[in-house]
Amino acid sequence: MIFAFVMFAAVALGAAIGCGWLLGARRGSAARGALRQAVAAAQAQVEATAAAAARAEARVAEAEADGAGAREELTLVRATATAFRDQVREQAAGLAAARDATAAELRTCRTELATVSAEHAAARGQLAKVALEHSAQRAEIATLRERLAADLESGRAREGRAVAELERVLAPLAQRERLASQLARLEVGGGTRGELPRMMDAIAQIGQFSTVVLSDEAGLPLAVNHEGGDGTVLAGVWSMLLTLADRVTTAGAPSPLAVVVHDAANQTIVHRLFSSAGTRFLLTAVSRGRSLPPESLDPALSKLERLLSGSALAS
Length: 315
What we know:
Blueprint: H1 2-184, H2 196-207, E1 211-216, E2 221-224, H3 232-237, H4 240-250, E3 258-262, E4 267-276, E5 279-288, H5 301-308
Antiparallel strand pairs: 1-2, 1-5, 3-4, 4-5
């Protein structure tokens, strides 16, 4: 049994040696392949390095050639720089001269500006003075305008009062002139006594009388205006004026021609005594609330005398 074990061990050892040799041979082959690859790679790298060195040598040669051109270019640049520096120095000198001239001109301008500023300040002061005077003048003008307006208003008021007073004073005269003018233009129509009632209406309308009566010396009404009633009482009462006129004449005094009466009813009654064809008549007119002069009815007398000297009263 030991023998079998020894034999088995020997066989196993031989197998192990065989396997180890095979494994070593395989690894050696792989190592030789790797070494060959490394050698190939190193050779390729050497070749690349040689090519790079060749290129570097070519670049060095080019650089040396470029250096020679650069030195020539540098010389040209230096010459150009020298000329540029000279030009710069010339321009700097011109600039300095221009700067000095500008500075002198600036000083002159500053001097002129100071003078102008002083003149402007003086002008502003004068302008302020003028503006102040103008404001004072405007205030004075406004005051004068107010005074003038007040004076004009007062003058207008005085003028209005004067005109009103003048109109009040002249109103009776104007009314008298209007009454005289219109009474003088009365139409006698046919020229007979039949026109007397129409004449009484016209006299009442023109003179704005409430009643106009024409009566004879016996106190009988010959004609009365349409709105004056029958006029009998008025004619009968005031016929005594004819008797009074006779007594005055008998006493040697001038014969009365007109009588104005103002009664308690605020009526003004004008009586006008006149004659026509040898007969005496009395023309009476009644007005309310206004005064009448004694000659108010005189412009109508010539027309009445013509009518009264005509034919008998028409029906």
